[in-house]
Amino acid sequence: MIGYVTLGTNDLARASKFYDTLLAEIGGKRMLESERFVSWSAGENSPGLGVIKPFDGQSATGGNGTMVALALDSREKVDALYNKAMKLGAKDEGPPGLRWGNFYVGYFRDLDGNKLNAFCMG
Question: 4-54+67-121 has which CATH code?
């Protein structure tokens, strides 16, 4: 259902380096890029995630209540991605663990304050 998600950034080079390294952990590769944005995907027909300088020229801010969830197929992969984000300078928003039954998830904010999580079911 979701085609792609973009997150605002005030430093495209810094954000791109963060996501190049982070998303490589789960098979993400650069899909498209320009002077204003870079996006990644695990394949041509897979959803994408991008970072972009806001079109209106204003500063990018982390959306209050906005979050991108990265679906993985094991707890080990959730742990690995969360730990990679922490090593890259992300801010902890809740370490990986079970929440709501079989929902295993870890929360973090990227270098621009955008909130993400890595999760798996089961």
Answer: 3.10.180.10
